[in-house]
């Protein structure tokens, strides 16, 4: 009987989008009131805000500024707000990444 044995090497763990997002926020040093379990919902909310602001709007600048202002108004610095928005876009709504600037 011919067969094959499965190796005992551990398979690589592919990160979920939520894990990638939580790690990105942690790496950036952004502190939020959200727990790691709640943080993905924040990222999705950022994408929802971008979607609402960008739909039918040929100029993305007001939408992007609006998201940064909203996040900064909730206790983040402007730099943290931009970082959170970029991380959210990179993981959950990459179609908006081109509007994030450098």
UniProtKB/TrEMBL annotation:
Name of protein: DUF732 domain-containing protein
Native source species: Mycolicibacterium parafortuitum (Mycobacterium parafortuitum)
Lineage, highest ranks first: Bacteria, Bacillati, Actinomycetota, Actinomycetes, Mycobacteriales
């Amino acid at each position: 009987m011919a067969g094959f044995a499965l190796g005992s090497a551990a398979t690589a763990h592919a990160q979920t989008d939520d894990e990638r997002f939580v790690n990105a926020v942690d790496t950036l040093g952004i502190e939020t009131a959200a727990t790691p379990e709640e943080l993905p919902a924040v990222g999705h909310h950022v994408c929802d805000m971008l979607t609402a602001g960008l739909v039918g709007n040929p100029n993305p600048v007001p939408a992007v500024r609006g998201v940064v202002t909203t996040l900064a108004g909730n206790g983040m610095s402007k730099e943290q707000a931009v970082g959170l928005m970029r991380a959210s876009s990179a993981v959950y709504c990459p179609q908006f990444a081109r509007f994030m600037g450098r």
